[in-house]
Amino acid sequence: MSYGLAFSPLVPLPLLIGLAVAAALLAGLLLFSRTRGSVLRALALAVGLLALANPSLTREEREPLTSVVAVVVDESASQSFGDRAAQTEAARAALKERLDRVPGLEVRTIVADAGDGDQDGTRLFSALSAGLADVPPERVAGAVLITDGRVHDVPDSAPQLGFNAPVHALISGRPGERDRRIALEKTPRFGIVGQNQSITFRVTDEGAPAGARVGVTVRRDGEVIARPIVTAGQSTSIDVAVTHAGANIVEFEVPPLDGELTLVNNRTAVSIDGVRDKLKVLLVSGEPNAGERTWRNLLKSDANVDLVHFTILRPPEKQDGTPINELSLIAFPTRELFQTKIKDFDLIIFDRYAQQGVLPQVYFDNIVRYVRAGGAVLVAAGTDFIDTGSLANTPLDEILPSIPSGDQTLQPYHARLTDPGKRHPVTRALPGSESDPPHWSRFFRVIDTKARSGTSLLGAPGDKSVLQIDRVGEGRVALLLSDHIWLWARGYEGGGPHIDLLRRLSHWLMKEPDLEEERLKLTVQGRDLVVERQTMGDSVPAAAVTTPSGAVRNLTLAQAEPGLWRATTPADELGLWRAANGRFTALANIGPLNPKEFAEVTSTRDVVAPVAAATGGGVWRLADLSGTVPRVVRVSSGERLAGEDWMGLRTRDVSVVRGIGLFPLFAGLSGLLLILGALAATWVREGR
User: Fold this and answer.
1) What DSSP element (H or E) covers 520?
2) 161, 167 Cβ separation under 8 angstroms
3) Which of the four, 105, 266, 423, 490, has the lowest number of CB atoms within 10 Å?
């Protein structure tokens, strides 16, 4: 309880000050002239002024507040290396026991980790600031950090802390730790397919002599492409070819250092998005037909496609002896297209093409070799496929998935997805396929064939195939056995998804990664990591997901739709994630390419030492304390707040007012008696 004096003037303060000045002058004049009773008169004036000032006695009831000390526990990924976690837990328990013995002290334990997955590095001081946000600075007695010393948000100066109290640090880990890491310094985001991109990296050995020669394994999409020998501590560049569109995952891995702390940062990866300069497509139409414009419009509408289109204008029955090169405005450059530059094309389409003596048989041999070497051919067949000039009667017969039986079926029907077609990325979830019959227009012709290989994606009644695909060597082949796809494009009976079907088919032939039948994909959606497995099988094994810290999570994949299986896991760590499912692997990087958390993992006192020294705190290594922590001492004054075996906390005398009493001195009878007493004393003195 404390007492005080408060004033509540009865007149405005300027007037009160003026009256005080006048009273002082009058009292001084009386005292100077030695008038009888001058002292009592001056006292009467003072009492009058005091009455106008309206003084009051105050009484406050105060309750003392506890001082607050923050214990910040580092639970970032680097704290899991070695025996740091055990050291940290033991230090936390011992420190809590010591702090609990100190009276008038409130202990706040703040856990700092990367649980939200969106911050790079260990941010202990951000956690400290958030944990003390509701505490007035004058109540903070100090802070103790339990960490490996790799803190990435250390303030530049002590005032930035927001309080005037010591910051101490207990360092986990052991002196002399060794670690090898590889970091990417210069990486491209995009690359033209078929061209090289340069990547710069550096191998660093901490705690080991510099200049060691280290072998690096470089992989692209899981396949080893180089094994350079580099010097630790020096930057090295390597050229990597971008082989396909989409993500080209390039991994770098170094062997472990003897006795090193962790292998987590011994590998890293970068994703280079492959961009095709232009997809070159050769479209050869055997004769003018209603479907020709469908193919042309589809391919011309794609800005990424460079289309070369030729149409054979003279049908076979109109042979009048006129040379072919005199019938065309532009001579058909057969030799240039099918011998000299055939490898430049990503896809060759034969649209209702029949042999007319334009292409010699040797050029079809070139096409077969082109496909086996990685090219793609699409045959959109009509009645030409069962005529004597059929492509099945050329060397292309070697790579076609089926051969014509010589008949055709002429009847209206709805092309339906086959069981493999419901799973294949080309036709899976094709718009309109979910209803029965499918919500698209009918076809009126299908060429009867005998299947030899490949997969049928669209079928007709009687187990007839409408669309077949196959892999031949390194290349791909597709056979469309109805020439009525143009009915979908023209909107007949509501039309159909011709754009989706033909575009997916074309891009599958050109090896678009997203359309592969068997594929494992790892993507980040919000705060989750999504594992997707495309397959033509009936089931898939569990996926093993390896976190950046090296932990393995086994995920059971659930079927999301036919041919697509999916599972999710929290993306709660920054760095390189890896998923494995059978023979397939996928990688995804969350956050920066070189996370600070794994950039330097050896424990150190140097990072937090400046802020500890600026606040008067101390830094101790737990390995040197023999399983205990320094003594806790309350310090009321002085700049030294830490010693060899003790840590100091500021003594805070902070209280809160719980009640207040007020007694006006000149109110009521007491005030009246004081004024009358002063006047009476003056009158008595005057009467003598």
Assistant:
1) strand 519-525
2) yes
3) 490
Contact 493, 225 (CB under 8 A): no
Reported confidence tier of residue 30, pLDDT bands at 50, 70, 90: low
Helix axes 38-53, 13-33, angle to 10 degrees: 170
The alpha carbon dihedral of 113, 118, 119, 125 has a sign of negative
The angle, 0 to 180 degrees and rounded to 10, between the axes of the packed helices 498-509 and 292-300 is: 70
The pair of structure tokens assigned to 321 is 């002896």
Pairing of strands 67-74, 105-112: parallel
Q: Which SS3 state, helix, strand or coil, does residue 646 take? A: strand
Distances (CA, A) of 529 to 273, 438, 464: 20, 35, 42
User: What is the rounded distance in angstroms from the CA atom of residue 541 to the CA atom of residue 58?
Assistant: 80
Residues 6+ apart with CB under 8 A from 255: 214, 215, 266
- Examine residue 437 and say whether the peptide bond preceding it is cis (omega within 30 degrees of 0): yes
Q: How far apart are CA 390 and CA 353, in angstroms?
A: 8
- What is the predicted pLDDT for the residue at 661? 64
Torsional class of 246: left (φ above 0), alpha (ψ -120 to 50), beta (otherwise): left
Q: What is the number of other CB atoms lying within 10 angstroms of the CB of residue 529?
A: 25
Helix (H, G, I), strand (E, B) or coil at 584: strand
Say if CB 2 and CB 62 are below 8 A apart. yes
Q: Checking phi first, is residue 207 left (phi over 0); if not, alpha (psi -120 to 50) or beta? A: left
- Collect all residues with Cβ–Cβ distance below 8 Å to 322 and sequence separation of at least 6: none
Residue-wise DSSP of 449-469: EEE-SSEEEEEETTTEEEEEE
Torsion angles phi and psi, residue 87, rounded to 5: -60, -45
Give the pLDDT confidence of 566-583 residue by residue, as tens digits. 999 998 887 788 899 988
H helix runs in 455-564, sequence order: 486-490, 498-509
Among residues 272, 232, 224, the alpha carbon closest in space to that of 252 is found at 224
Q: Alpha-carbon distance 65 to 276, whole Å?
A: 69
CA atoms within 13 A on the CB side of 336: 5
CA distance 338 to 571: 51
| pLDDT at residue 677 greater than cutoff 70 | no
Helices 38-53 and 668-687: angle between axes, nearest 10 degrees: 160
Q: Which two tokens stand for residue 481?
A: 């056995």
What the block records as the tokens of 597 is 């958390």
pLDDT of residue 387: 86
pLDDT confidence tier of residue 553, bands split at 50, 70 and 90: very high
Q: What percent of the chain has pLDDT over 70?
A: 88
Residues in the chain, overall count: 688
How do 376-380 and 475-480 pair as beta strands? parallel
249-297 pLDDT per residue, tens: 899 999 999 889 888 889 888 889 888 777 899 998 887 777 778 888 8
DSSP helix/strand/coil, 77 = helix
Q: Which of 640, 508, 611, 573 is nearest to 163 (CA)?
A: 611
Query: Rounded distance, CA 600 to CA 177, Å?
Result: 11
Contact by Cβ (8 Å): 542, 557: yes
- Tokens for 46? 């003072």
Q: What is the mean pLDDT of residues 155-176?
A: 92
d(CA 235, CA 52): 84
| DSSP type of residue 66 | P
Q: How confident is the model at residue 121 (pLDDT cuts 50, 70, 90)?
A: confident
Burial grade of 555 (CB within 10 A; 0-12, 13-18, 19 or more):
middle
